[in-house]
Amino acid sequence: MPVFPAHADCQSLHIPPPPTANTTYPLAPFFIDLSALTTDNMSPRRDPHNPHYPPAHDLPDRAVPSDTANGNFVLGPTHPFAPEFAMTANVPSGRIVSFTMESGHSVLFNPGIVRDDPDNCPNGAIYTSRSAPGDPSNLRLTESHSGPWIRQVDVYVPVQYKPGTRAPFLVFGDGGADGIYPGRDLFAVLDVLIASHRLPPPLIAIGIGSGGQDAQGSERGREYDTVSGTYAEWVEHEVLPLVQQHAGVALTHDPDGRATMGISSSGGAAFGMAWFHPELYHRVLAYSPTLTNQQWPHADAMPGGAWQYHSPWAGNPTATGSQPGAALIPNAPRKPIRFWFEAGDRDLFYPAPAMPDGMHDWVLASENMARVLSAKGYDYQFVLSRNAGHVDGPTIEQTLPEALLWLWQNYTPQGN
Fold first, then answer.
1. Whole-number Å distance between alpha carbons of 28 and 72
2. SS3 of residue 156 by DSSP
3. What is the spatial distance between Cα 290 and Cα 170, in angstroms, rounded to a whole number?
4. Which of 125, 128, 240, 316 is the most buried (most CB within 10 A)?
5. Which pairs count as long-range contacts for 364-368, CB under 8 Å and 24+ apart, including other chains?
6. If you ran DSSP here, which 8-state letter would residue 117 be given?
């Protein structure tokens, strides 16, 4: 969920848990762990070496991990541009083809969802809503209703692409005209990495705009924060055919040649695309992924939303196996997924005041994710960035080339 500017009539995105929240008893429902947290002007800051987090390797300031290493790493506080950004003027640029999509032509997301917020207060309806009695994980939100959406899709095609050949590709959310990151920065870095033969030479990138607004009760939240395979199915059946038509390209069916990417909630969706459809995607890259309880409306089958990828629903914190609220990854066979992800030490902490549910700490969610991925033997690289906020621009500019190289490690084209 992108961080919006503060408004005079809006509450802050960073507020302490209310006095009634459970910050004392870890085994009781809806526990909020404050052990790694300090605040400066209401902004959270975490200790990367909190004993509740898995062990991580400190890197020298300005350094990034090796693009062949797995595990947990901590970046220093200074985040310079990766050297590849200085090379973009000296390599041929791929072409970019853009087109728009509308909800009236969709099957899976028609109609869309629109939330009525107070004037001059993005997400204002969320600030004033209340959760269900006795269940802070269930937000009661009445301001949403059906409505249309329109979005832009950008397709990057490298100059090395040969028409008629099936190409590997990277699809990312929060793209298009309203995207925040990575957008055109990603396309420029791909120019350099493909020209230098460090990435597959025909790699195509597809940036898909969100459906609008943010968080619970919005079309963006519906698409990205719902824990299911629906978004991947929408991309497969409604977006990719249009990509091939408008850009004149052919896309591989090989899941090892398909990657997903996103920021915040679209980062959580990127993981969900591979988790629910490993026959479609094997590679995932995410900055500040929303692996927290943002799913709306509340679903009894998955009451913890994306938090349940790695941890039990906080309303039943000891759930295991097939018990209600149990975590997904620890209780499922290992899937063929590679996952590169990052969080900032000043990342989001309980932005919705009515949800002190033990499942809205973005850093703890990523740390828990790293722990369960390691326990199951996944290929992953998790980076915690010092002096970095949510979807931190300088961190992206420092790490994006390395992340892409790690992501595509050991890829061999299959010709399909």
1. 29
2. strand
3. 19
4. 125
5. 364/33, 364/36, 364/52, 364/53, 365/289, 365/290, 365/291, 365/292, 365/306, 365/307, 365/310, 365/311, 366/289, 366/291, 366/341, 366/342, 367/52, 367/53, 367/54, 367/343, 368/291, 368/310, 368/311
6. P
Q: With the C-alpha atoms ordered 129, 130, 131, 136, is the resulting torsion angle positive or negative?
A: positive
Q: Which two tokens stand for residue 259?
A: 């990657």
Residues 6+ away with beta carbon under 8 Å from 124: 9, 10, 117, 118
265, 290 in Cβ contact below 8 A?
yes
CA 359, chain centre distance (Å): 16
* CB-neighbour burial class of residue 118 (10 A; exposed 0-12, middle 13-18, buried 19+): middle
Mean pLDDT by 10 residues, the chain (416 residues): 37 63 94 85 84 97 98 98 93 96 98 93 90 95 97 97 96 86 83 96 96 96 98 98 98 98 98 98 98 96 97 97 96 98 96 92 98 98 97 96 98 85
Under a CB-based contact definition with an 8 Å cutoff, are residues 262 and 270 in contact? yes
Beta bridge partners of 40: 43
